[in-house]
Amino acid sequence: MNENVIDVLIYIYENYMGNEDNIPHDQILLEEELSQAGFPSTEIQKAFDWLDDLARNQITMSQNLAATPSMRMLTPQEEQRLDIDARGLLLTLEQSGLLDKTSRELVIERAMALDEEQFNSEDIKWIILLVLMNQPGKESAFAQIEEMIYNRPTDRLH
Question: In this structure, is residue 114 part of a structural domain?
């Protein structure tokens, strides 16, 4: 059985987000389908709330961070919950220009909104994908993150 919100979000993305024709137009129908797929109703509701908050926070954060030059330091709670690989991924993606400061803040904020004790780089990739999905002008970054998720190299060359 799938047990956490990230699993629900991944399932929604993989089964509905890419194909507009398959999305149930009624939230109740979508909840029923997710329940039949094995997700607990509490996790389904948390996933819907998470997506609603993402939509609200995208507008607020983009307005608040637009002209704020700053350096980002993680709080102790963020450091504890984002493992070293997840923090490194965020830094690398920001330095490469795939994430801007608004997207970075949304990713961190959305991660902290989940009940997980710790996030690894794979979890963060999915959160990044969901954050970038509906941000205008981020189509290229979205495609690159999607490529990272689905086409992982099996061996790294050093």
Answer: yes
Task: Output the 3-class SS for the chain.
Answer: CCCCHHHHHHHHHHHHHCCHHHCCCCHHHHHHHHHHCCCCHHHHHHHHHHHHHHHHHHHHHHHHHCCCCCCCCCCHHHHHHECHHHHHHHHHHHHCCCCCHHHHHHHHHHHHCCCCCCECHHHHHHHHHHHHHCCCCCHHHHHHHHHHHHCCCCCCCC
In a domain, 143, yes or no: yes
62-72 burial code (b ≥16 CB/10 A, e <16): beebeeeeeee
Residue 96 inside a domain? The answer is yes
Q: How much is the pTM?
A: 0.84
16-67 pLDDT per residue, tens = 876 666 667 788 888 999 999 999 999 999 999 999 999 888 877 665 555 5
- Record the tokens describing residue 146, joined without a space: 């999607």
Per the structure, the count of domains in the chain is 1
Cα 23 from Cα 31, distance rounded (Å): 11
